[in-house]
Automatic annotation (TrEMBL):
<feature type="binding site">
    <location>
        <position position="209"/>
    </location>
    <ligand>
        <name>substrate</name>
    </ligand>
</feature>
<dbReference type="InterPro" id="IPR044015">
    <property type="entry name" value="FBPase_C_dom"/>
</dbReference>
<feature type="domain" description="Fructose-1-6-bisphosphatase class I N-terminal">
    <location>
        <begin position="5"/>
        <end position="195"/>
    </location>
</feature>
<feature type="binding site">
    <location>
        <position position="281"/>
    </location>
    <ligand>
        <name>Mg(2+) 2</name>
    </ligand>
</feature>
<feature type="binding site">
    <location>
        <begin position="117"/>
        <end position="120"/>
    </location>
    <ligand>
        <name>substrate</name>
    </ligand>
</feature>
<dbReference type="GO" id="GO:0042132">
    <property type="term" value="F:fructose 1,6-bisphosphate 1-phosphatase activity"/>
</dbReference>
<feature type="binding site">
    <location>
        <position position="117"/>
    </location>
    <ligand>
        <name>Mg(2+) 2</name>
    </ligand>
</feature>
<dbReference type="InterPro" id="IPR028343">
    <property type="entry name" value="FBPtase"/>
</dbReference>
<feature type="binding site">
    <location>
        <position position="116"/>
    </location>
    <ligand>
        <name>Mg(2+) 1</name>
    </ligand>
</feature>
<feature type="binding site">
    <location>
        <position position="275"/>
    </location>
    <ligand>
        <name>substrate</name>
    </ligand>
</feature>
<keyword id="KW-0119">Carbohydrate metabolism</keyword>
<keyword id="KW-0378">Hydrolase</keyword>
<feature type="binding site">
    <location>
        <position position="92"/>
    </location>
    <ligand>
        <name>Mg(2+) 1</name>
    </ligand>
</feature>
<keyword id="KW-0479">Metal-binding</keyword>
<protein>
    <recommendedName>
        <fullName>Fructose-1,6-bisphosphatase class 1</fullName>
        <ecNumber>3.1.3.11</ecNumber>
    </recommendedName>
</protein>
<comment type="similarity">
    <text>Belongs to the FBPase class 1 family.</text>
</comment>
<dbReference type="InterPro" id="IPR000146">
    <property type="entry name" value="FBPase_class-1"/>
</dbReference>
Amino acid sequence: MKKNITLSRYLVEQQRVDGLIPAQLRLLIEVVARACKRISHSVNKGALGDVLGTAGSENVQGEVQKKLDIIANEVLIEANEWGGHLAAMASEEMDSIYLVPNRYPQGEYLLMFDPLDGSSNIDVNVSIGTIFSVLKKPEGHPGVTEDDFLQAGAQQVAAGYCVYGPQTTLVLTFGDGVAMFTLDREQGSFVLTQENVRIPEDTKEFAINMSNMRHWDAPVKRYVDECLAGVEGPRNKDFNMRWIASMVADVHRILTRGGVFMYPWDKREPNKPGKLRLMYEANPMSWLVEQAGGAATNGRERILDIQPTKLHERVSVVLGSKNEVERITRYHTEA
């Protein structure tokens, strides 16, 4: 890997080499990256920037919004609406889609994002992040409607996240592997730090919120019980448990060193298929994980094959090291 390759240079070279990244998509990703830099700056200021605490409002899912949720959402909209690359946007923080205003040129892409994943960690200085997904607007549609966004995750043309931790790291896929970029604050640019990211097929680490154990379905209990039994149990090895409560941070750990992440269906809200949002969280993260050699299912089927029926659809998520995901999925089908 050559040294000091900026995101802009990486995207231009990828565009030249195989044509995988059209010019408009390249420009769109550069704009999203610039927005992430602005969000990173706000996150880093913390209490000094008067950005901590709640905003006294709720999003469409009835969740209390933090000030930074709203700031991040506005930054992404303002950065992307005027460039001419987009037709519309959708956000976890907005009720319906956001059409690019008529005063700006219309592009061929649709952008979806969770502006700040892991809101409960904002005020306690734990890693949070921005997740995004890009779809192509269906051809032959003069305007844009919500239905245009309801595409299976396999239709994504780009996806990624930016994690705001000890370093600010941007992780990207265009369907040809996964690359990581670290923000060089002195230079003001994202610099390529890892290419062809690979997730080990086996792991000794799992991530799940154990406080919900009494609400889990039998297959999830079976899997976790086997992990907890350690070297004396049926798995014949000891496992470590992790849970950061920011999906973006848990997935970043898995991309870095392997592991499995679970946010399963449980009995607290039996009518909901899961907690995480299919369009803003599960689809982009599942594609990244698959592109790095991992797997992602809802316990029964591949997440990227699920046909969405509504913008804020929820889903169960099991993703990470391939062999562990396949085991958990098998436990569900056996049950």
